[in-house]
Every structure is written in structure tokens, then in C-alpha cells.
């Protein structure tokens, strides 16, 4: 396609431009890595390490309006900046131009605010006047030396949340205390001391991650033991990194360095309480998460704060208990839930309160056991004491809680029942049944858009309410929900893959990009190897896949096991999917490959979950840009995996509308691709809707008729069901012989119609789609998209769709 080519050229030149600007930027500042005695840095001045990897200067995190002095990797653009050290983390500056970092003649490095008041300092003094220097080293360490090169102070001794290669995390044997400590940021926009920290607990090198300096929720064994490796589960990346534990009479510490000097790597304690390790292969320009612990978010102690409920793999992860509201909603918006929730209505006590039963939860911490027999007496014991906020009668007897409730988790099974004390008025309102008023369709067309928007608003409200009800009074469905896979990216050698694929002989498929081969690893794990060909196109796809898929882990996304980048060879290694791609089942003439309705529905839900994760749950928003049945793979159990991230695009967290280049496949492309409007995640929603029609009908949406006319299945289907009042079963794949759950089919059909609405604002989000398909959110009949209405040809053309 011509337009495709010219568009991708625009994309190329944009890439080149980016490359150019970042290169020139580097060159112009690389000259100076030093602040000399008497000098200062102010405004947008920075110093850069000699190798060009690190930069020191003022920065503002995210959308914050505050200024901080810090060190960051030069690799990424400003909005993806990886800050590795912050000087004034608890004391931000409001005014940039007049603030400065100054090295005084006495050897003290001081940060001065606009009133020239010191707000941070190294407190160092040099014996030699006017001879000290502060140098930003190639390892990212800011080192302050006096004239005789004695180290007066260095940033490696005062880490914030990040441990860089070459830095120590250790224990001071003489002072008998941790020598360094990493403390999380409060949220992505505030580097102030957060609630999580990690440090060495003793001279043997065991590390603990703690909440508020007390409760430890993850720890390693002592370094000297074999189990140290298994606790940190680093075995599979030991090949790439040199880890050492050094112990002498004064100190013991952990440190690491990458074996390959072109790899950058660091460990950081993220504000969500997880210890994470990222690495960057320089040419790829994006960070890859290779390791994190604990692997489950709800294992992080106190993550949802007081009276919050944690639910693994849900969106958002934290909710308030019924009858409670977010204490600091602004922090919740930044995914910082540690402030927890507060009661909406205060308790009246004296027998006026009710107890609400929460099903299947992990009980909060700090219970008191009381020796009463029956459940009724347990309730009485709690209701008679005004400070009692909840009770549970478990196999361990009667437990009561006084004051705040921390660490409740909603489980899918094997949990306990917790009885929560609430004001009577809160119990009746949260127990109310929620239903949606049907809104008649066929309103004047101008009104439709308005109605749709308000319906969507209602949706999201109801979504929230209904979830609350779900955690409280109704029986939870036991759907397992998406699970986080947990893997490392391995850098394979060319010859390893050559052996694994028997000299690239067992071909599974191919395309313009190259070929896909089947292989087996030495530990007999079956793999699929994608061998990219065509130097520039291959390189682009390679980077795109590694940088997007390397960042994400989800049961409904294909798992990237590793990659190979040697010379001109670019290969990607994935889990092998024994059932092939979705299109091979949907459009197959082979009866044995036909998928029954419930499998199709599970596939639709799975894909939606995978996309919801991409759009809403991972660190950056990722738009896949090429959703179609060919890019959905099925494993042995027919669990769908979204694959082929060669066109995917990572957007910053602010979901900025930056994509204007043409990507994707005709037939699944949202109208905004062709109208030149910038692209959002709703483009994926559109493609998903198109694909959903194909899953329902088992036929391609678009088909060229004998007379050369293009037929468009969704048009026919929407028209038939919505305006002609036919049964939804009539659009079902006839190979299924009308055997389908009609409620599910109706839901799927409505979702598909909503997804392909012309206006992206009318399309639901992927998260809402999951809820609708799971039956948690109700949905109204959608309008027929207007542009489809225009496409409506006479009935005969359309009916001929069915006469093959
Ligand atoms: C670079 O460093 C040298 C001394 O190390 C200093 O004299 C010079 O002023 C610095 N240049 C800039 C632009 O800061
Ligand atoms: C730094 O700030 C000055 C004055 O505010 C401005 O003229 C200059 O373009 C800025 N430099 C960079 C690299 O942003
Ligand atoms: C410098 O001293 C002040 C006052 O004692 C202290 O608050 C601050 O933390 C010290 N700075 C560093 C970097 O140790
Ligand atoms: C953290 O601990 C301090 C005392 O060490 C306490 O005052 C504070 O309330 C605790 N924070 C939370 C959120 O519990
Ligand atoms: C690993 O690190 C230790 C301590 O820093 C060092 O002695 C050793 O030579 C390093 N090994 C390699 C292969 O880099
Ligand atoms: C331990 O500290 C003492 C006193 O500062 C010093 O003399 C000695 O060299 C240190 N030992 C090591 C192994 O660094
Ligand atoms: C309520 O329970 C708390 C905590 O167990 C206890 O300290 C207090 O004395 C009790 N109050 C009454 C009135 O029993």
C-alpha cells in the first residue's frame, strides 16, 4: 500500500530526528562532568558523566510542578526519565531559575532555594580551601573530593530508592547498623520518603523489605547460604551479572555489576513496594523489567492502607471497604493507596451498628483472640465494645479487631468471612441491588451521541458501585482472573537457537517480517523463534517487541522468553503455543478445528483482559495497534495470548495522543486512522470489536462479492439485530448450529457494536469490556454506527453473504 509506505517513512524520519537530537544533546554537554569549588549549577544547567550515561541537574517528576536536584539516566526522553538519585527528596523547590546547587570554597555542596537559603547540603568540609571538586562518575556516583583526592562525600553512600551497579547495600559492623537503605518514593510524582524501605539486617547480608520501618513482607536468607539465590530468584540472570557479597572487619555489603559493559542495570524499590530490577541494552532505548519481588502486589504489606481491600489482578488493585471512602483521592489517582480509606458515616455504637459480612477474604493483621464459644457470642463480644471494628469466627476461634483494619485481601477461594462494623445506614445502601434502566434506542439520531455518553458515564459509576457490592454481600464468582506470569528475559546466543531449532528447519509460519520456527530448549521447553529479516524493518520490529513485551507479563499476552541480537541476526524467543492462531480455527473448513461457543467466549474475555492490562495496568500505556485473529495465539488449553507487538506503541502515563503514523491492518482499522486524528487506546478497542464479530460469526468481516462490491458483515449484523429486531442467534456462526449461551451471545454482540462506534468517546474502555463480558456491568443496546448505516446496501447484496 502506497499510503502505508509513505506513512512509515514519516515514522522513520521521526525516529531519525529523535536519534539525532538525543545524540547532539549528548555531545554538547558531555564535555563537563565536574562542578569545581566556587561554581554552581542553576536553572536547566546540568553536568553529564564522561560516558554520557548519567546527568545531574534539576528535574520535575511527572506532572509535578516542583523541582528536585537529582541524577538520571540520559537514555530516555524527559517523560520516561529514570531518576536514580534525589538530593532534596523531602524538600522540593518551587522556583527554578534562582535556585542553585553550589560547591562552596570550604568543600560543602549546598542546594540553595530562591531566597538563597540552604535546603540540603552534604555537610562536608575540606581542609584545603578552594580545592574541592564534585564529579559525576561513569557509574552515576556523584563524588566530592578535596584537593588531595580524599572522598569527602559520595551519593552512593546516600542512595534514595535505587541501587546502581557498583554501589553498596550493606551493614556497618562497627556501628552495628545498616550502612545504606533504599526508601521508596511516595508516588511517581513525589520522591519524598515513602512507606517502604529495604536494608541489610545484619552482618550476614540478609535483606528485608519493610513497611513503615516495621513489618517485613519480603526478605532474603543470609548471603552465605545457598538459599540466598533461590530467595532472590536470580539464578537465570546470574549469567549476565556479577553479584558479590563482600565482608571485612568493618563492613559487609552486596554489590553487582553487569558483565557486558554495554548493558545498564539497576535495582530499585518502587513506590508500590516491589523491589525491581531493570536493564537497558543501549541500542534499544527502553528499560526492561527483568526481576521483581514480591511477585504479587497484595503481598506488599499495607499496600491498600487502612480499610482498603487488595485484589490481585483487578483494576484498580485497591478498593475501599463498603461504607468507606478514599482518604486522599488525589494520591489514589497516582496509584498511591497507602493513605487508605475512612468511614463515610461514623459509628454510633450502643447496639446501633450493623455487621456486614465480607466473603472469602484474607483477614487483616493485628487481631485479638477472645475465648468465647459460638459465633453469636463472638459477635456480641465485638458489638459490646465500641472500639471493636470487625470480628471473625474461624477455626482458630473468635477474633476481634480494634481500630484500623490493614492488609485485607479479597480472595477467590479459601478465604475467611470477616464481619465489618458499619453504621446501620451504610449497610442498607451498599446492599441495594443495582440495575440499569433500559434506554430506548431509535431516538432522533442527534440525541444518540448524548445518550451514549451519559450511558457510559452511568456505566463507570455502576461499575464502581457494583464492585463494592461484590466484595461485600454477593457471592463472588470464582473466575480465576488473569495471573501474572513471572519471567526473565534471556539473551540467547545465536548458536543456542540454531541448535534449538535444528538449524532453523521446523517452520511454523512466516510473513513479511521473516519466519517463525519451532524449537526446543535443552530443558525441553518448547519454544517459538521469530527470525526477523530485512535490516531496517526487522530492527524496528525487534526493538518494538522487546521494549513493549519485555515490560509486560500477563497470562493473556504471549510471553517473551528472550532475544538474540548478534551481528545482523535479530531473533525473538517465545513460549510455544500448540493451538496456533485464532484465525486458523475461526475460518477453517476443517470441522475438527471449530471452537464451541463457551471456548469462543472465554477467548473473547481473555483477549479483553490482556488488552485491558496493556492499556490500563502496566507502567506505561501500550497500544497494540494490530489486533486481529492472526495475532491471537492459543495455548494447549485454548487460553488466548495477544501476540505480535511489532507495531505496538508505548505511550507515557498521561495517555497522550501522540500516535499519528499509520499502522495496522485494513478491516480492523479504526476510522481515526484514516482521518488523521491522533490515536488512543480506543483504536485497539475498535479492532477488538471487529474481531469479536468474527469470533461470533466465524466469518471474515469483509468479503468481496462476485460483482466486485465489498460486503461488510458488522453492517449486516447490526442492521439485522438492532433495527429489524431479529434474534441475536441469527448472526451466530452456523457451524455452531445455534448452540450458544444466548445471554453471553447478546453481551458479546452488544460489546462488539459499542466497540466499533465511530466516535472513540462512545467506545467503552477495555477494562469496561472485561466487566461487561464478565457480567459485572450491564450494557444497553448500542446504536448502529452511523458510518455503517451509510454503508448499508440493499438487503440482497448483504444476504448473499450467506450464500457461499
Ligand atoms: C567545566 O569544568 C571546568 C573545570 O573543571 C570549569 O572551569 C568550566 O567552567 C566548566 N564549564 C562549564 C560550562 O560549566
Ligand atoms: C536553558 O534555559 C535558557 C534560559 O531559560 C534557555 O534560553 C535555553 O534554551 C535552555 N536550554 C535548554 C537546553 O533547554
Ligand atoms: C546535613 O546536616 C543536616 C543537619 O544536621 C541534616 O539534617 C542533613 O540530613 C545532613 N545532610 C546529609 C546529606 O547528611
Ligand atoms: C508509621 O510508624 C510511625 C511510628 O514509627 C507511626 O507514628 C505512624 O503512624 C506509622 N504510619 C502508619 C501509616 O501507620
Ligand atoms: C565480580 O565482582 C568482584 C567484586 O567486585 C570482582 O572481584 C570480580 O573480579 C568480578 N568478576 C567478574 C567476572 O567481573
Ligand atoms: C577498617 O577500618 C579501620 C579504621 O578506619 C581501617 O584502618 C582499616 O583499614 C579498615 N579495614 C578495611 C578492610 O577496610
Ligand atoms: C474494648 O477492647 C479493648 C481492646 O481489647 C480493651 O482495651 C477495652 O478495655 C475494651 N473495652 C471495654 C469497655 O470492654
Automatic annotation (TrEMBL):
Keywords: ATP-binding, Cell membrane, Disulfide bond, Glycoprotein, Kinase, Lectin, Membrane, Nucleotide-binding, Phosphoprotein, Receptor, Serine/threonine-protein kinase, Signal, Transferase, Transmembrane, Transmembrane helix. It is a single-pass type I membrane protein. It is an enzyme of class 2 (transferase). It catalyses: L-seryl-[protein] + ATP = O-phospho-L-seryl-[protein] + ADP + H(+); L-threonyl-[protein] + ATP = O-phospho-L-threonyl-[protein] + ADP + H(+). The chain crosses the membrane at residues 436-459. Its EC number is 2.7.11.1. Residues 349-423 form the Apple domain. Residues 1-31 form the signal peptide. Residues 502-777 form the Protein kinase domain. It is found in: Cell membrane. SUPFAM superfamilies: alpha-D-mannose-specific plant lectins, Protein kinase-like (PK-like). Its main location: membrane. GO terms for cellular component: plasma membrane. It comes from the Eukaryota. Belongs to the protein kinase superfamily. Ser/Thr protein kinase family. This is Receptor-like serine/threonine-protein kinase. The lineage of its organism: Eukaryota, Viridiplantae, Streptophyta, Embryophyta, Tracheophyta.
Amino acid at each position: 500500500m502506497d499510503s502505508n509506505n509513505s506513512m512509515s517513512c514519516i515514522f522513520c524520519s521521526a525516529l531519525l530526528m529523535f536519534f539525532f537530537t538525543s545524540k547532539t544533546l549528548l555531545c554538547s554537554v558531555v564535555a563537563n562532568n565536574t562542578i569545581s569549588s566556587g561554581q554552581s549549577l542553576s536553572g536547566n544547567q546540568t553536568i553529564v558523566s564522561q560516558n554520557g550515561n548519567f546527568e545531574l541537574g534539576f528535574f520535575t517528576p511527572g506532572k509535578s510542578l516542583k523541582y528536585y536536584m537529582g541524577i538520571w539516566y540520559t537514555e530516555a526522553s524527559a517523560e520516561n526519565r529514570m531518576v536514580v538519585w534525589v538530593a532534596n527528596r523531602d524538600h522540593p523547590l518551587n522556583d527554578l531559575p534562582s535556585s542553585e546547587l553550589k560547591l562552596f570554597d570550604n568543600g560543602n555542596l549546598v542546594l540553595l532555594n530562591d531566597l538563597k537559603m540552604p535546603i540540603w547540603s552534604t555537610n562536608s568540609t575540606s581542609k584545603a580551601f578552594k580545592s574541592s571538586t564534585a564529579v559525576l562518575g561513569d557509574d552515576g556516583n556523584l563524588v566530592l573530593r578535596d584537593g588531595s583526592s580524599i572522598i569527602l562525600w559520595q551519593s552512593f553512600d546516600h542512595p534514595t530508592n535505587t541501587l546502581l551497579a557498583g554501589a553498596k547495600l550493606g551493614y556497618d559492623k562497627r556501628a552495628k547498623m545498616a550502612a545504606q537503605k533504599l526508601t521508596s518514593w511516595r508516588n511517581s510524582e513525589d520522591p519524598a520518603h515513602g512507606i517502604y524501605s529495604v536494608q541489610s539486617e545484619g552482618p550476614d547480608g540478609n535483606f528485608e523489605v519493610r513497611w513503615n520501618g516495621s513489618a517485613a513482607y519480603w526478605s532474603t536468607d543470609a548471603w552465605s547460604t545457598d538459599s540466598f539465590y533461590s530467595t532472590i530468584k536470580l539464578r537465570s540472570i546470574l549469567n549476565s551479572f556479577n553479584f558479590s557479597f563482600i565482608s571485612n572487619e568493618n563492613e559487609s555489603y552486596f554489590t553487582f555489576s553487569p558483565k557486558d559493559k554495554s548493558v545498564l542495570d539497576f535495582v530499585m524499590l518502587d513506590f508500590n513496594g516491589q523491589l525491581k530490577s531493570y536493564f537497558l541494552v543501549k541500542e534499544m532505548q527502553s528499560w526492561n523489567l527483568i526481576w521483581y519481588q514480591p511477585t504479587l502486589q497484595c503481598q506488599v504489606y499495607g499496600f491498600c492502607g487502612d480499610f482498603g481491600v487488595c485484589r490481585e489482578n483487578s483494576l484498580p488493585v485497591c478498593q475501599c471497604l463498603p461504607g468507606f471512602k478514599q482518604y486522599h483521592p488525589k494520591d489514589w489517582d497516582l496509584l498511591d493507596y497507602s493513605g487508605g480509606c475512612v468511614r463515610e458515616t461514623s459509628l454510633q455504637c450502643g447496639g446501633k451498628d450493623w455487621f456486614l459480612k465480607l466473603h472469602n477474604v484474607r483477614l487483616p493483621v493485628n487481631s485479638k483472640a477472645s475465648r468465647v464459644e459460638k459465633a453469636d457470642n463472638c459477635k456480641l463480644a465485638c458489638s459490646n465494645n465500641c472500639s471493636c471494628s470487625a470480628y471473625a469466627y474461624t477455626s482458630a476461634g473468635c477474633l476481634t479487631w480494634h481500630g484500623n483494619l490493614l492488609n485485607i485481601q479479597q480472595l477467590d477461594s479459601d478465604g475467611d468471612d470477616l464481619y465489618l462494623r458499619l453504621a446501620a445506614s451504610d449497610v442498607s445502601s451498599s446492599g441495594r441491588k443495582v440495575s440499569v434502566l433500559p434506554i430506548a434506542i431509535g431516538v432522533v439520531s442527534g440525541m444518540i451521541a448524548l445518550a451514549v455518553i451519559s450511558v457510559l458515564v452511568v456505566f463507570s459509576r455502576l461499575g464502581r458501585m457494583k464492585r463494592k457490592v461484590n466484595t461485600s454481600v454477593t457471592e463472588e464468582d470464582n473466575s480465576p482472573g488473569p495471573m501474572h506470569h513471572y519471567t526473565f528475559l534471556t539473551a540467547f546466543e545465536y548458536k543456542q537457537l540454531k541448535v534449538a531449532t535444528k538449524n532453523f528447519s521446523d517452520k511454523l509460519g512466516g510473513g513479511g517480517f521473516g519466519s517463525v520456527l519451532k524449537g526446543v530448549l535443552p530443558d525441553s521447553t518448547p519454544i517459538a523463534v521469530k527470525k526477523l529479516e530485512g535490516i531496517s524493518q526487522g530492527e524496528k520490529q525487534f526493538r518494538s517487541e522487546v521494549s513493549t513485551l519485555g515490560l509486560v507479563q500477563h497470562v493473556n499476552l504471549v510471553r517473551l522468553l528472550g532475544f538474540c541480537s548478534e551481528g545482523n541476526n535479530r531473533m525473538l524467543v517465545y513460549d510455544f503455543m500448540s493451538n496456533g492462531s485464532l484465525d486458523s480455527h475461526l475460518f477453517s473448513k476443517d470441522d475438527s478445528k471449530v471452537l464451541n461457543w463457551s471456548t469462543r467466549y472465554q477467548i473473547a474475555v481473555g483477549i479483553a483482559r490482556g488488552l485491558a492490562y496493556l492499556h490500563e495496568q502496566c507502567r506505561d500505556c501500550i497500544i497494540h495497534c494490530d489486533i486481529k485473529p492472526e495475532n491471537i495465539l492459543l495455548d494447549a488449553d485454548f487460553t488466548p495470548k495477544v501476540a505480535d507487538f511489532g507495531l505496538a506503541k508505548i505511550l507515557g502515563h498521561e495517555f497522550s495522543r501522540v500516535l499519528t503514523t499509520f499502522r495496522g491492518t485494513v478491516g480492523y482499522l479504526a476510522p481515526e486512522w484514516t482521518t488523521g486524528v491522533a490515536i488512543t487506546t480506543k483504536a485497539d478497542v475498535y479492532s477488538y470489536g471487529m474481531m469479536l464479530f468474527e469470533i461470533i460469526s466465524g466469518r471474515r468481516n469483509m468479503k468481496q462479492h462476485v460483482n466486485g462490491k465489498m460486503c461488510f458483515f458488522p453492517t449486516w449484523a447490526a442492521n439485522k439485530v438492532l433495527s429489524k429486531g431479529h434474534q441475536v442467534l441469527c448472526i451466530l456462526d452456523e457451524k455452531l448450529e445455534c448452540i450458544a449461551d444466548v445471554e453471553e451471545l447478546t453481551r458479546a454482540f452488544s460489546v462488539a457494536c459499542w466497540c466499533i462506534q465511530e466516535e472513540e468517546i462512545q467506545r467503552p474502555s477495555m477494562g469496561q469490556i472485561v466487566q461487561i463480558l464478565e457480567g459485572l456491568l450491564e450494557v444497553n443496546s448500542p446504536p448502529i454506527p452511523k458510518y455503517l448505516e451509510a454503508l448499508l446496501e440493499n438487503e440482497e447484496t448483504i444476504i448473499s453473504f450467506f450464500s457461499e
